[in-house]
């Protein structure tokens, strides 16, 4: 997991290859993460809802 500005980047299959299950692994991790974020509330702005988004990239790590 790497923090990039206001985003978190997660990679699957690095540094050890995990076959062809990269997308499944990331999607399986991201759905509970998304659900948990939707139930979070900011202490100083309780009326504001977090608006998370998840993008999946299937290219190489280069």
UniProtKB/TrEMBL annotation:
Molecular function in Gene Ontology: adenylate cyclase activity; guanylate cyclase activity; nucleotide binding; peptide receptor activity
The keyword ATP-binding appears for this protein: no
SUPFAM superfamilies hit by this protein: Nucleotide cyclase
Cellular component GO terms, alphabetical: plasma membrane
Domain Guanylate cyclase intervals: 1-62
GO biological process per UniProt: intracellular signal transduction; receptor guanylyl cyclase signaling pathway
Name used for this protein in its record: Guanylate cyclase domain-containing protein
């Amino acid at each position: 997991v790497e923090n990039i500005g206001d985003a978190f980047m997660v990679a699957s299959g690095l540094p050890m290859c995990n076959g062809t299950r990269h997308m499944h692994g990331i999607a399986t991790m991201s759905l509970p993460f998304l659900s948990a974020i939707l139930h979070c509330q900011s202490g100083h702005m309780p009326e504001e809802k977090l608006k998370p988004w998840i993008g999946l990239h299937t290219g190489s790590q280069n």
